[in-house]
Amino acid sequence: MTETAPESPAPIARDARVALETTLLAHGVPQGEGLALARRLSETISNRGARPVVVGVVKGRPRLGMTDDELASFLESPTAVPKLNTSNLGVHLFRGQSGATTVSTTMELAARGGIHVFATGGLGGIHAEPLDRDVSADLTALTRFPVVVVCSGVKSILDVPATREMLETLGVAVVGFETDEFPCFYLRKHPDARVNACDARFDDVQELAAFARFELARTNRAVVVCNAISAEHEIGVEDWNRWLSAAEHRAAADPASAGRNATPAVLKALHEISDGATLRANIELVLSNADLAARIAVAMQR
């Protein structure tokens, strides 16, 4: 029986780099699984000919490209590694403290380091009741940093109609890859008809990359590229509504789940209530986003 040799990774393009956040690795998956996920994401990106760049803050120093050893040390006690957004990043840099970068801080550090493509799971946004006081710094970061953010829309736990409207109000281009609809993380399409579709659809990576170069230069703002979760891994609407209701009530009853802790608290509760189904979907969609981000990054160099 003849075995086929594994396909070799594509040659690295000249400056095709893809940023990866560390909040996903430190807070988005169970303790002990972050390093393995980082390796899977990095391999996915490398196989497309781009260079993965894990972004974090280590003892007050921004790190664009954390090594395995650095990341392993970083993830030993994830509860001790705070989430950094654009409001508290400066304090941690000033005081020489470590922290995990969220979407907003990954965008800031990546843009300052000349990296203009970023793969994540879903954007933050405006929370619905009972967590309606939390509004993510991701939204304003999209207006400040010229980065292509490849995501599966916004997190399904949010007030998706309000968040989509805010993206439009802020003037952030929201385009879909092989989709007209605005996805929301675990769902390929939000069931609420008030959720606006993407501003445009692209089915060709080369055209999408050309648009991204044009739009970043034109506006000096981010471009949101929506890559919907595959139908195979999508969570059913009925299951989703039931799980979300239970998770929100659990998080709302916990005083420690207020403000910037709201999203990880609800996601953790969802993973437990769904018996891991939401976690598995989360991992699949972020791997898909990393793959698309790498393809865009390579195409932007051509």
- Number of structural units classed as domains: 1
Give the fraction of residues assigned to helices. Answer: 40-55%
Which spans of ≥5 residues are poorly predicted at pLDDT below 50? 1-6
Termini separation comes to 40 Å
Average pLDDT: 89
The oligomeric status of these chains comes to single chain
List the total number of helices.
11
Q: Do you know the CATH architecture?
A: 3-Layer(aba) Sandwich
Largest β-sheet summary:
10 strands, mixed
Strand content: 5-15%
CATH topology tier name? Indigoidine synthase fold
CATH class: Alpha Beta
Can you give me a brief rundown of this structure?
The chain is an alpha/beta fold and 302 residues long. The protein has helices spanning 23-27, 34-47, 68-74, 89-95, 103-112, 138-141, 160-169, 205-219, 237-252, 262-273, 277-300; strands at 17-20, 51-58, 61-64, 83-84, 99-101, 117-119, 148-151, 173-177, 200-202, 223-226.
